[in-house]
Every structure is written in C-alpha cells, then in structure tokens.
Design goal:
alpha/beta; Spore Coat Polysaccharide Biosynthesis Protein SpsA, Chain A; Glyco_trans_2-like
C-alpha cells in the first residue's frame, strides 16, 4: 500500500512539473533557447525594389472603411505604382459601396455571398500583377513608410516573405484588451528572435507579404495567413520579420468576442496544420522545433493547465484535506472575482485561462472534422 501511495505521489508531482514546464515553454524556455542560436545575416543585392500589390478582404467593415481608405490613399500617394485590390465577402452594410466609390484607388472584387477570406484572397492573388503580394486586414492601418521598408527587404534574393510588426491600440479599455496586448508584445518578440535566427514560423493576417511566384494552391477551409506564409519556408526561402514595417489595429475589448475569435482561429489553425503536415515533416530540424514550440505546445496549453490542476489537487489532498479545500476555494474565488471584474489582476488571470481554453476548444473542434470558413468582425473592436 505504501509503494502504491508513493507511486501516486510521484506521478502527480511529475505531471504537475511537466504541466508547468509546458505552459511556460513558449514564453520562457523557448525564447531563452532562441537567444542561444546564431544570427543568420541577410545578403541584400543591388537593384530597384520589386513592384507590389496590396490585398485585403472585408465583411461588414463600413465603420472602419473611411479610415482604411484614407490610409490607402496616403500609401498610394507615396507609391503611385502600388496596386490595391479588395474582396467584399457579401457584406450586408455599406462596405462594398464605400470601396467601390474609390474605384480610382482600389479595385473591388465582389463575392457571390459568404465564401470566406481564404477564397477571397485566392481570387485577389490570381488577379494581382505585383512581384510582391502584401496582405493586410480591412481594419488595419499601415504607417507611411511601411511599404518602403517592406520592399527593401526583398533586396536579398533568399528572402521569400516579409512580416511586419503589429501594434495594438486601446490596450487599456478592459482586462481582455490588456491581456491581448501583453500576449501580442510577447509574440512580436518571439517573431523577432525567430527571424534573426532564420525563419519565422507563420504569419498573421495583419501585415505580411510574399513573392507572388511562391503563392500556393490551397482549399478554402484552411487559415490562409498560415498556409501562404509557410509556403515560403517550404520553398526553401526565408520568412523574416521587419520591425520597421508597422501596422496598427484596435484590440477586441469584450471577453465574449475574444473567446469566439480564439476558438475560430484555433479551429482553422489545427485544420491547416493537418493540411500542411506532409510538408511540415520535411522542414529542417530547427524549423520543426520552432513550429512545435510556438504553435503546437500553445494549442494544447488548456490541456496542460487541466492536468496541472488535477495533479496539484491530488498532491494537496495527500498532504492535507484542509489544504485541498483552501486551494479549491481560492480558485473559485479568483474565477468569481475575475468574471465579475473589467480590470485588475483577477480579471487578467481569468482572461489568460479563458484564452487557453478557447484555443483548446477550437483545436478539439477541428479534430472532430469541423472548421470555420467565414468570419464576423468583433463588435467590441
């Protein structure tokens, strides 16, 4: 009996330790390992910058469109040869009409209804004429020198794709926005280190670009940002990040909006992972390590948290039933306070845990064969 008890205690302790390491891995251990890797220098060549096409998809973005069109007009004034293409995914508001009114600035493609961003981006990419395709979102604004700085990186012929830096606005509006802002600052630093050491492992849709010749074919059900950016790595070219290519976007402030957004993104990301698995297996060892550390470990973070809670509860019960009760009540109190608060440490703690579980729910959804093709703008943005 004593041997069985000791075994349970050892298993619980190991499960708790491994869970803590797994949860901390993408944000603590992985960055430390990246800093030990050597820098891979870029090798720019002489020549004029490549031509470019800027592409974005929109659905019910009428509120953001006046500012977006003004931002595009500013970029066009600086780069008269810049081609700008937009896809409207069957908006029920004035989005399409607002874009169409600026036909001198943007070429609009209308979808037959809700067909999704991946479908729209494929249509735009097929229509684009630029040597470099620049992808962004309808609610994202680019700084004046973003295009110059982005295209300058293509002077290195080994570079096949360039990501920009996303700066969020409105991070003080709620605990959800503050947690999202903190998470994204960490994410940006990780991408900087990945870029320094070779390749960034995947882009988000706010601002990234690739050489048009590398644009892949893919089904409408995948996450196009991840699929298109990873095509650069699969082609043996470098996918790098430019700190001076700055995009700005307003944070999602409502907890419910952010939860649904994370479920949708995680479901599509896992579906995309399944689609790309054969090519992922052929990547270099260092790139497979990066991909697993920044993506796969995070996708299962909610499972690691659950395992850690069960293990900690088991150990607490073995030490003292009173300790188990105090720990359980403390957890319930933090959850109660966090759900009732709009700010402060309790609300932030709850938002962090909810983010993990939203991601886990999305992955579980994708594993059962379900995915999400269409999207809706967050109302609290």
């Amino acid at each position: 009996m004593g041997l069985l008890t000791d075994s349970i205690d050892l298993i619980a302790a190991l499960a708790l330790l491994l869970s803590l390491v797994a949860v901390a891995w993408p944000f603590l251990f992985y960055p430390l390992i990246l800093r030990l890797l050597p820098t891979k220098a870029e090798q720019p060549a002489a020549g004029p910058p490549p031509s470019a096409s800027l592409l974005f998809c929109a659905y019910n973005e009428a509120a953001a469109m006046p500012e977006k069109l003004a931002n595009l007009a500013m970029l066009k004034a600086r780069h008269p040869a810049l081609e700008i293409l937009a896809f409207d995914d069957g908006s029920s508001d004035e989005t399409a009409a607002l874009i169409e009114a600026r036909g001198d600035l943007v070429t609009l493609l209308r979808g037959p209804g809700r067909s999704g961003k991946a479908h729209g981006m494929k249509l735009l990419a097929a229509r684009a004429q630029g040597d470099v395709l620049i992808f962004t979102d309808a609610n994202v604004m680019l700084d004046p020198d973003a295009i110059d700085n982005l295209l300058a990186r293509y002077a290195d012929p080994d570079i096949g794709g360039v990501l920009g830096s996303l700066h969020y606005m409105g991070d003080g509006e709620s605990a959800t926005a503050s947690v999202g802002s903190l998470y994204w600052r960490i994410e940006e630093r990780l991408k900087d280190e990945e870029s320094r050491t070779g390749n960034v492992l995947g882009a988000d849709g706010s601002i990234f670009s690739i050489r048009r010749a590398l644009y892949p074919d893919f089904p409408d059900s995948v996450l196009d940002d991840l699929t298109v950016s990873m095509a650069v790595v699969f082609a043996g070219k470098r996918l790098v990040k430019a700190k001076d290519v700055i995009a700005r976007e307003r944070l999602v402030a409502a907890r419910g909006d952010e939860y649904r957004r994370k479920v949708r993104i995680a479901a599509r990301a896992w579906h995309t992972h399944s689609h790309l698995r054969p090519q992922l297996r052929r990547m270099r060892g260092v790139d497979r390590f990066k991909y697993a550390s920044r993506k796969i470990v995070r996708w299962f973070g909610g499972l690691f948290i659950l395992t850690g809670i069960v293990a900690a509860g088991t150990l607490a019960m073995r030490i003292s039933p009173m300790l188990y009760m105090v720990g359980g009540l403390t957890g319930v109190f933090i959850l109660w306070r966090g759900l009732r608060s709009r700010g402060g440490p309790f609300a932030a703690a709850v938002d962090i845990v909810l983010a993990y579980f939203a991601t886990l729910q999305g992955v579980a959804k994708a594993m059962t064969g379900r995915t999400v093709t269409i999207w809706n703008p967050a109302k609290s943005r």
